Amino acid sequence: MPREIQLQVAPELAANESLLKKHLAKLLLVSENEIERIVPIKRSIDARQKAIKVNYKVNVFFKGEGFSENKIQLPNYQYVANQQEVIIVGAGPAGLFAALQLIELGLKPIVLERGKDVRGRRRDLKAITVDHIVNEDSNYCFGEGGAGTYSDGKLYTRSKKRGDVDRILKLLVAFGASDDILVEAHPHIGTNKLPQIIQDIREKIIECGGQVLFETRVTDFVIKNNEIKGITTQNGTIISANKVILATGHSARDIFELLDRKKIFIEAKPFALGVRAEHPQELIDKIQYSCDFRGEFLPPSPYSIVKQVNGRGMYSFCMCPGGVIAPCATSSGEVVTNGWSPSKRDQATANSGIVVELKLEDFKPFAKFGALAGMEFQKAIEQKAWHLAGQSQKVPAQRMVDFTQSKVSSNIPKTSYVPGTTSVEMGQVFPGFLSQIMREGFNEFGKTMRGYLTNDAILHAPESRTSSPVRIPRNDETLEHLQIKGLYPCGEGAGYAGGIISAAIDGEKCALKIAAVLSK
To answer: Would you give the DSSP letter of residue 192?
Structure first.
């Protein structure tokens, strides 16, 4: 049996297997030759002290213990072409992992995706970045793989109570992700690597007899006696099924409007909104690692910060070390920001959403929209930003200290946001209460992270798609919609997830519930 060892070592030792073996041999009072293999279990950085350490949990295998490389395998997926069909609306993580789970359980998924396949999306991303043209069906939010595919692929989650996180991570490894994601405290695949994994998942679904239909936008639900009977697509095609998983993501406003129009119960949901702040990565490294130079054995440093300001939480969100800021609008006439990092996180800048908790009472000016009040609040800010930045995909921008002083920045340096920036006093973008909270919050951030509050940091507005502004209520036990039998609201768009892993878990849960019902 291997020995499980927890240790704390210098970064250069953790990065060198030979030095690590020597250290463990000394620790275990054995010869180096007696150690056959060291297998990492968990790894994290501890930068709380001046001497930075790596927390490491490893299994140590000794000679004669019969160590063998256990490559993670895919489940034994069935061929389901002739089995009962389940419609899945949306090919993000919730939809794709629901499809895989259905196949595993002997059911046929039909995945409908309004956007293009993962490769085809690239042309539309270039169009919005370079030409400022937004394809409303294919962009950073819509298309195969969902919003996470081209906006980072971060896998960190606090959703361990929601389901089996390790199962999702192992499936990603089986589909081609590095097994480092099983070890790192904050696992990350990277925008440059995730598309191939998503493509391989789709090919497996098709190989097993499932269907994946791209550029197929759902425009209506076929409902009879409060029971789902199928869906209608944009070209008028009706696809019949009495089980539908609705996994559209947090930006599918047309679906929210459709549900509201058909008087299918939905409700406004609080979310968070703010700006995306960009610092030089070197500055964040200096702050977090308390050093002048990061060195080759430490990764670009992330940060996480939370403050209470005037009774509201203000916090960092989707932090991207060594990353860039991307244009994530889903309609013309609006501006939206998000961030992503390549797998090596080797860009010169670090960015993070800095957002403030909203409350339902904040949406009162939009009360006439009922359950869509939060969505209209969100939309109004995005549209105002578009107008202020010159009616293009440029974004309103301001130096951080200038923002805290309500001072228009005399100039904005080039940032990682390729469409460009326009110098704007951010108070024009946001409601007064929100601007005031952020001004006070950034001053508080500066007290916690010395050097964070600087005019070398550029704020881009808005960061507005943190989560869905709508919840589609469902039965806690069956996961069916409270009103429509056979309709399973799922993932981020329904208000039941917040990232790739939690969305994938929720997709699997819905698939399991459907299989249980159909097996009776």
So the answer is: T
Look-up of token digits 């906006």: 151
Place of tokens 């210098």: 10
Q: What is the pLDDT of residues 462-504, one digit of tens each?
A: 999 999 999 999 999 999 999 999 999 999 999 999 889 999 9
Residue 18, judged by CB atoms within 10 A of its CB (0-12, 13-18, 19+), counts as exposed
Three-state DSSP state, 243: coil
Give the sheet arrangement for strand 35-46, strand by strand.
3-9, 53-62, 35-46
| Residue that has been written with the tokens 């005031």 in this structure | 436
Q: What is the rounded distance in angstroms from the CA atom of residue 491 to the CA atom of residue 505? A: 8
DSSP, collapsed to helix, strand or coil, labels residue 474 as strand
Question: Which strands make up the sheet holding 349-357, listed edge to edge?
Answer: 306-309, 312-320, 349-357, 272-280, 458-463, 395-399, 421-423
420 phi and psi, to 5 degrees? 110, 170
DSSP, collapsed to helix, strand or coil, labels residue 17 as helix
Q: Is the whole model's pTM more than 0.70, yes or no?
A: yes
State how far the Cα of 294 lies from the Cα of 309, in Å rounded to an integer.
Answer: 32
